[in-house]
Batch of 2 targets.
Target 1
Amino acid sequence: MHSHDTALIGLDWGTTSLRAYRIAADGAVVERRETGDGILSVPTGGFEDVFRAVVGAWAEGGLPIVASGMITSRNGWHETPYLTAPAGPADIAGGLVRYRTHGGQEIRFVPGVMTRGADGSPDVMRGEETQIVGAAGEADGTIVFVLPGTHSKWAVVSDGRITGFRTFMSGEVYAALRDHTILGRLMQPGPGSEAAFLKGCDKARSRDGRILNALFSARTLPLFGEIAETETADYLSGLVIGAEFVEALGGVPEKAPIVIASRSDLAERYLRTAASFGRPTRTAADDTAATGLWRIARAAGILT
Amino acid sequence: MHSHDTALIGLDWGTTSLRAYRIAADGAVVERRETGDGILSVPTGGFEDVFRAVVGAWAEGGLPIVASGMITSRNGWHETPYLTAPAGPADIAGGLVRYRTHGGQEIRFVPGVMTRGADGSPDVMRGEETQIVGAAGEADGTIVFVLPGTHSKWAVVSDGRITGFRTFMSGEVYAALRDHTILGRLMQPGPGSEAAFLKGCDKARSRDGRILNALFSARTLPLFGEIAETETADYLSGLVIGAEFVEALGGVPEKAPIVIASRSDLAERYLRTAASFGRPTRTAADDTAATGLWRIARAAGILT
């Protein structure tokens, strides 16, 4: 078999996008397709049509198909239960949920993962567990993986298994504050100000991660001309992400390396924030979702 | 002169409402009018028309008129500068800004008050200084006044002067989260749950006022059926107000009495929260704005 023959079709199907991969037996991505067909934009009952249109001929010949992300949620195509952490590739492989399409193809849906905090509150992920498994690879020891975004995830991985994680609503909180409070009124588009971003981080750190009062400084500082209106959005972003770091760093092992597992534009901001907290941090390789899907499929023994 | 003759016309003119008072020489409110003509709903150049329609014949005969609130802001009728704290009735009286209407009536606009936090960030109020002056009355010693709302104010008053204050964006943050994030999707109208509200307060306290992770529990708890969807809004409210208390109590004198200076429905929630933090708290009398306007006018020597 040629090493770049397809051994697996992987789907990373989230809220706002669908990423489809043809993956070789050694985990290499042979081909990728990305569309805006996230679950929010697909009408009820329409998932199989999208699947056929995007994956199409790839799936002929009975290749195994594994799908992760919000596609497995109540509002997705086929709901899967949550595994309880700790969870690694073998646990996730054991929890795959088989589903047969009307067209007769079998898809294996990845389960979500849940955990409970020290105070018993549940926390959940769908899709991120696959990215983390991909980013973690064969690494031993304890690593902290950070997935920035609307709902940022901070996961602790020990010897390849997710032992616990916490979700921070930073991205969504930032957008709601910017677009739906008075803070947006003194914001003007600007070229992006690293200084203002770091000033926001510093403020969050000086307030030990408590933001309800500090947020008002995103109004008073431009009101008094102490930051420019073109810098105010960056300042607010720094404030929120800085607060996330104060809170998140307080709950992860002190010496563990930190890895930002993201393709997003946010990764750069998270790296800068980590540096401002004196925590050396690196980014993961690209295509962590594809690698994760491949590692789960391999653990399940279903690679062709 | 009859004790209930009018000696002063007071206007508490804010963002969403206008409250007008006929006030006697001893501070008693003789008559009050309230309309929805907040500065947000009055077209440019329209303030004098609203003034004439609402205050009308009251203002004939040259009675002194004092006005406070957002009406003195850049988007109001006549902008006043900020006094820098400490500020009491005499300071505010000294900062009154005279304005003559086209109709020839003189209005004295109350200045806003500003202060700077330990880290130099500016903070501001317009209108609340008048309510605080009214609520403080002749009391000696140090008292903490709390004005719940869209932007809650916590002010420290010593011997009748506002020595410093902080603004917490709790009300606006709560509304933005409820209406413009995923948290609203698992909320259903309910009869109001004190237990859920206090559960939110407890969560905020256990997280030492850091909310970015705790907020996600307002999604996961109803998702797992651990609070009812009809209770989720109360839980979120408790979480945000509880976080405000953690942060605010950390910056006020430990033994000072706390007074909630508010007519709003929120006062009850703030009292409950204070009790859950073990801080005995009382509410101020009604009409604190009218009393404050009267105290400022008296300090200015302009009562008829």
Target 2
Amino acid sequence: MSEILDLVGIFVFALTGALMGVRKRLDVVGMGVLAEMTALGGGIVRDLILNVRPAAFQSLGYVLVPVAATVIVFYWHPHVARVMPVILVLDAAGLGLFSAVGTAKALEYGLSPLHATVLGVTTAVGGGVIRDVLAGAIPTLLYDRQLYAVPALLGSAVMAGLSTAGLHGWPATLAAAVLAFGLRITAMRRGWRAPVAKGAEDPAA
Amino acid sequence: MSEILDLVGIFVFALTGALMGVRKRLDVVGMGVLAEMTALGGGIVRDLILNVRPAAFQSLGYVLVPVAATVIVFYWHPHVARVMPVILVLDAAGLGLFSAVGTAKALEYGLSPLHATVLGVTTAVGGGVIRDVLAGAIPTLLYDRQLYAVPALLGSAVMAGLSTAGLHGWPATLAAAVLAFGLRITAMRRGWRAPVAKGAEDPAA
Amino acid sequence: MSEILDLVGIFVFALTGALMGVRKRLDVVGMGVLAEMTALGGGIVRDLILNVRPAAFQSLGYVLVPVAATVIVFYWHPHVARVMPVILVLDAAGLGLFSAVGTAKALEYGLSPLHATVLGVTTAVGGGVIRDVLAGAIPTLLYDRQLYAVPALLGSAVMAGLSTAGLHGWPATLAAAVLAFGLRITAMRRGWRAPVAKGAEDPAA
């Protein structure tokens, strides 16, 4: 069950990576690289910091699911783009799930609740940051995509809090993921955005 | 004492990250991410290469100080920008300190003096490189910021030399850091720059 | 013998990094950083994922050879650029070699043939991706350089296949590297390119 949810999250993240490849007119290799990195990058960075071998290099499904997403986007990207609203909802679900699961894994390896929260957010948003950097864009995370990072922070903090209170396992993970998902969806619906510093001038560098 | 110096260095590096966020008109999340990565990125890369859990994920202060820097820049960035000359001097101090401390840690973990020097430079300049890449700019390190990398190289090499000669501990670290700081400040005052290859043509790719 | 081949591959990769520095009008520090990262980046990422200390930090030659390449390009880059066809052939040889060697090391550390193949490709192309990101360009890997990634994939897959069939050691490595080299050279000669998705629109983000 946990593995299946993981793979669904990976599949949706990989779709957004492959679609970015189409938008940037990359070839199928570029689409595949972006799909793999978007789907697996956050978890790989988390595991490097935890000093364990990345989970992505121990599961066949983790590597193959982004290949499938690439093939689908390559042949049917206009159709995939048409169901973008569905993808965004699934992406919000993946965001919630990965933040909760990432935080739980970090706690398991002995990190403090604060550090586990940071690593949970990293798991959830790291792949998207790598995708954007490789595609030559400033990560959307940095200038707000209707609070993309904030729901991940909520999910991770709730997970860390529940664990610290002695509540582990799937009920806690689910609760944290659902809260993050709900905030992200609400922020998207209402167009909530993180504030910008007053009087921020045009780039001068 | 060592911890306090570290935190001062982290605070100053974080200020430069958050200010970059303001210049690029990022929101508060982007400012915070840049602040954290500028302050902690170099040390995280060093620790990943040493194959130990990053120090940033074992200390609350390391994570919270950049948050404080972000808040300060968010509310008072015009004032912060006005004291930029002070920040640049503190940044030079952080550069010297991080190169010396990074080299010492690498030697402690058994690296050769040459490799420890490379890792010391990485510690000092790595966060700034990550900041610039995330902000969508070619790292200033690569086209010279009045010898930004060269003082780090000096500090790291001196630290490695002193350690090899049997001189360890804070006096050696301080000497190496002060030398790097002095070269950086002198280079800034006099506008020293690293040479460019003769006849370098316009980008053709 | 193996060490010498490695150093030749590192030298050629470093040349392409330093030349990119000249094209982007970077100073000698920028050229050196690009040379080091292009030559060593792929192997460092591979070793981080394998959770071992990077080989680049255990060999003096690995660090010093890119320095030599930087000096050569700094003083004689018009001559170096003139022999670019030779460099491209040597780069193809490095690509083949690094994919085979990277795959072999990953198998040694217990990865599955599929994951070892992924890591072999990473070893071969990782440094070039880091070079391009640092230089502010979308990695050429992503939009095809006459199948740059595909020969690396072929070499890695053949290496993994031969090892699984019980064929180890230099004959297998050589066979895999030569196949990758041959495909890359043929693709360059004939201008083969990876396909782009039909109807890929202009960037809309």
